[in-house]
Amino acid sequence: MNEKGITFLVTADQIGISETGAGQNLMKIFLGTLVETSKTPSYILLINTAVKLVADDSYALDSLKALVGSGCTILACGMCLDHYGVADKQAVGKRSNMVDIQAVINSEAKTVTL
User: How many domains in the chain?
Assistant: First the structure.
């Protein structure tokens, strides 16, 4: 595991509820801003529809790849990848499970849920 720091538990492929695409734009901006900050998060944990963000056609793929390049570990819930049909499209991060995701949450200094 990485050095203790901040972890983001992301539960959806957008921020808030939006039928107009605003929520996806907010998520894209948020992840892009994370790339530009001086402190890279230790982990980004993706569960539920958030696993769609690691798909090869995701609007967030470039930002997630940049975060990995900066030392962030991305874990995507394997059950969720299967459920949403994106397991074969995963282009970034590691397939994981709730045991590992919970272990990260318990080991990190701070976890923020989106």
Answer: 1
Q: Is 1 helix (H, G, I), strand (E, B) or coil?
A: coil
Closest residue by Cα to residue 47 from 80, 1, 74: 80
Evaluate whether 23 touches 15 at the Cβ level (below 8 Å).
yes
pLDDT in tens, 51-73: 999 999 999 999 999 999 999 99
Instruction: For residue 76, give the nearest of 4, 3, 1, 8 by alpha carbon.
Output: 8
Amino acid 28: pLDDT: 92
* Full domain range(s) for residue 86: 6-113
Integer Cα distance of 114 and 100 in angstroms: 19
Q: How far apart are CA 13 and CA 59, in angstroms?
A: 10
